[in-house]
Prior knowledge:
By secondary structure, chain A is mainly α. In chain A, about 75% of the residues lie in helices and about 0% in strands.
Amino acid sequence: MNTLSSAWSWLTSAAHWSGDDGIWHRLGEHLFLTVVCLLLSCLIALPVALVLGHLGKGGALAVNISNVGRAVPTFAVLVLLLLTPLGTHGQWPTIIALVVFAVPPLLTNAYVGMREVDRDVVRAARGMGMTGRQLLFHVELPLAFPLVLTGVRIAAVQLVATATLAALAGGGGLGRIITAGFNLASTPQVVAGAVLVAGFALLVEGLFEIAQRLAPEWARGRMG
Amino acid sequence: MTAPPDDCLARNDWICGEYLTSRREILWDAVVQHLQLTVVSVLIGLLLAVPLAVAARRWRWAAGPVLGLTTVLYTIPSLAMFSLLLPVYGLSASLVIAGLVLYSLTLLVRNILAGLRSVPEETRQAARGMGYGPIRMLFAVELPLSLPAAMAGLRIATVSAVSLVTVGAIVGHGGLGNLIYTGMNTYFKAQVLTASVLCVVIAIAADLLLLGVQRLLTPWTRAVQS
C-alpha cells in the first residue's frame, strides 16, 4: 500500500526525529506526562481507596466513579479546562484532565481488591490482636495487591490515551504528530503518528503484562 | 455606530439561554448525528461480537487469539485508532463508525464470553439430557443465561461510544464533538459547555434505557435479588 510506504519513509527520515516538533521530543513529553500523572493519580487515589476499603465505607462512590468517568468525554474535559482561566497555565489543563481520568480505575480496583479480601482472614488477623494499621499493611494490602496493580495498569493505558487526546486541545505529546498531520492534510504523517502512539500504548500494556508475569505468586493479577 | 448587544453571547458566558434558543437547530443536528454514530457502531459491534464470543467459547484454541486481539485493539488510543483507519476510509463518517465498532466489539466479546462461561455445567447437562442439540442449547439456554453479563457489556460499550464519538471531530464527524472542537477554536464557552453537558446527558439516558431493557429481558435476576 502506498500510504503505508510513505508513512514508513516519514518515520525513517532523520529530520522528523530531531528538533522541537521531532519524534524524540514528543515522545519525551508523552512519557513525562504519563509518568508524572500516574504518580500523582496513585498518590491521590490509592490512600483514599485503601482507607475506604479498610473501613468498608464509601463503596458506592468508589465503584460508581468508574462509570461516571466513562460517561464524561475526555475531549470535552480537556477543552473545558482549556477555556477556564487555567488554560493559560501551560500544561496544567492537560495534567488535571489526565489525573481526572486516571483516578477512577485506580480507586475502583483498589477498593474492590480490599473488599474481596477473605473476611475469615481479616477476622483471624483481628483475633490475633492485630491493630487496624497492621491489618491494613500486613494482611489486606498484600492480598489486594493484584487488583491494585491491575488498576495501575488500566490507569497507565488510560493516561497514554488521554495524553494523546490532549494534542487536540493544544497539549504536547505524540498526539501532536497526528494533529499536525491532519492540519497539513498529510495522511502519511497521520498514520506514522498513529503507529507511534499505538506502539507506545502497547509497550506500556506489555511492560505491565511482563511485570505481572515475573512478579511473585501473591502479586500476580487474576485477570487475563 | 451601535453598541454591541449586552447579552450572554457577547459576554461569552459559560451558561447562556440565548445560545440554546438561537442555535437550537445546530444543536439538534449534532445530537442526531451523535446518536446515529453511536447506535450504528454499537449495533454492528454487537452483530460481530456474538459469533466471535460463541466461537471462542466453542473452540478452546480460539479464545486466546480472540481475547488477545481485542485487548490489543482496546489498548490503542482513540485518536490513533481513527488515524490508522484514515487511509482506508478517508475523512468520512465510516471512519468514525469503524473505529467505534472495534472498541464496542472488544467490550462486548469479553462480556458475552464471560456470560457464556458463567452458564453452570449442570444446566447444560440438564438441557442435553432433555434432548437439546447444540444449536437449540445455544439459543434457548446459553445465550439467554449470558444476557446479564452481555447487557452489562452493552451498557459499557454504549456509554463509551457516546463519549468516544466526540473524538471523531478530528475528521469532522464527531456529532457534539464538532461543536466542542469549533467552540475551542473560537473560544466559545457556551457552545463547549452545552455540547459537553449534552454528551453526558445522552450517555446517562442511554445507560438508563439499556438498564430498563435489561430488567425486562432478565426478570429472573430480580427474583434472585429480592
